[in-house]
Structure formats: C-alpha cells, structure tokens
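Protocol step 4 of 6: structure prediction from sequence.
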Amino acid sequence: MPTTDGGTSAGKRPLFAGLGPHGERPASPEAICLSPEALRRARDAAYRIVVVLHTTTSDWSKRQIAGIRAGLTEAGATIVDVIDCAYEAATQVEAIASVVKQKPDAVISIPFGGGAVSRAFKAVSAAGIKLILLDNAPSGLLPEADYVSVVSSDNFGLGQIAASLLSPHIPTGGSVGVVAYRIDFFATAQREIAFSKWMRRERPDIALTQVKFDTPARSGLVVGPYLDRHPNLDGLFVVWDEPAVEVAREISCRPRRLAMTTVDLGKAVADALIGGDIVKGVAAQRPFEQGHAAAIATVAALTGQPAPAWIVLPGLSVTTANVGEVYRSVGGEPASPALMAASNN
C-alpha cells in the first residue's frame, strides 16, 4: 500500500495512503476530465444541484461549498439549495426525503450517521437523481448502484501525518490520548486507525488510550473528566479541528500543558498553531479542491462520462514553520494579524 511522505509545504503533495470504503484504489481528481462536448451539454442543460452537509458553519464546510460552487459554475450548473443537518442523523434523513421530492438533477452530500441514513440515501439514486458523496459511504451503499463517487481527503494519510507531528513532543515512555468520534463515520475512523497504527509501529513506547465524543460542542465536556482520570497524559490527537478547539480550551484551563495535533486547518486552529502552546501540528485537508472535484464528478455523471468510485486528495503536514503558506493555499483569508504575517513570510 502506498504511504504518505508527510510533505511540509503547500507545493509538496504526499502519496495516497488509504483505500476506499469498499477497498477501492484511490484515483486523483485529475482522472476526471470534462470534454468540451460534455461542458457544452452541461451548460445547455443548466443542471440543478442540492448540497446536503452535516454542518455549514465550519471553515471546512464553507470552503467545501465554495469549491463545489466554483466547479458547478464552470459547467453552467446551479446550487439550488444548501442544507445544514446540524450533526443530526434524523435531520439528514428528513432533508434527503424532502430533496428527493424536489427532483434536482444531482445531490452532493456528506452522509452523517452511518447505517442510520443509508435507506434515505438509497432513495436518491432510486429516484433517478445522481448522488455524489463526500468522505463517507454509509454501510449498505454501493458504488454504481447507489452513488457515483466518493470524493474524499486521504483520511488514512491524515491520521499518519498527525501522528508523525505529535511524536517529537512525546517523551520516551509517554502516553497519548485519542479523542475519537463516537458516530459511525468512515473518514474519522480512518484517521483514528492510521494514527494508532503509526504510533504502534514508530513509537511502541507510547501508551495509547481513547475517549469518544458525540458532538464537537461537547468534546471539551467529555475530555475534562478524561483528563482527570489520566493526569499524566503527554499529548492528544483530536480527529478534527472543531472539537480540537474545544479540547484546547479545556487544556488551557489546566496547569499541565499537553501537546496536541488534529486534522483540518480552520482559522481558530491555525491561530493556535502559530502560538504553538498546545497545538503542535495539523494535518490539513484541501476542502476547496475537494469540493471542486466533487462538482466535476457530478457534471461528469450527468453528462454520461465515467468517474472513479474513490477520488482522493492527499493532505498536508502543517507546523508553525509553514502554517501561513498552507493556510493561504487551502483557501480562506488569514484570521488574524499574526496569521497574515505568517502568510507573507
């Protein structure tokens, strides 16, 4: 299996490391190429697309939507609705049922809640609507039969990057906690597996424990008692940046400073990384590029062109040395004067 090299600059792309939800080999976004004829047909058809996300408030989601919109606009397609499911599986089931009745040409969505939402998503393709997934294919959904493609970050590679960034900050014989997501979600599960595998292979001296949270907003409340039970922890890996911000807030209230790494380079985590007090590194996704790739896969499917079942973008290794450069490259304006200065270095 290919492995990531943990590239440290925005221009260096590590190799893919993870396989798809059904063992698919990863394909690069460049594998999808819309022909001039396909673009002409798409512009004539003026396709209508609905986007259904777990949340629309995170930096990742905002960049993802911007990438989807940019890719669709190139092909004359329009986003007619963006639905925020607020991390609620039941809300997503209701949203998908409503969307099917609207009969758009395609749905781009990140399924949330594992098998609990599978039946709802099966109804999309059954209604003749093209379905393109982001990051996650719940159990029971199959490529070709139920969806066109899963367009994803290399989440296994992201977990490896996060582990390699945390390792130098953990003493020999130290201990690390994995702050994991309780929901059945392929992307975060891949990160957790990869992080633990890397640590067991490269740092077998480190003791690993785990705590799980249900929602990002409650992650700090869950981690507080966990830290009380494990007062000698040296570090934490949090599976993405929204809960990581809450966890960092909990750590900052305590006398013992733990080193932490996470995934996703949102504004708050980028600012925290500049200071380097708690956050020591980030495995960054490319949400704008991912959204753009999902849009192109959508147009390809609608115009009868083939698209790979598992389209993957590698992650980036981010430290205090390159946070400004990478933040600028993955999309989004600098969040603070310090980050603006870092972006100009």
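Step 5 (inspection) to follow. Confidence is low (pLDDT under 50) at residues 1-15.
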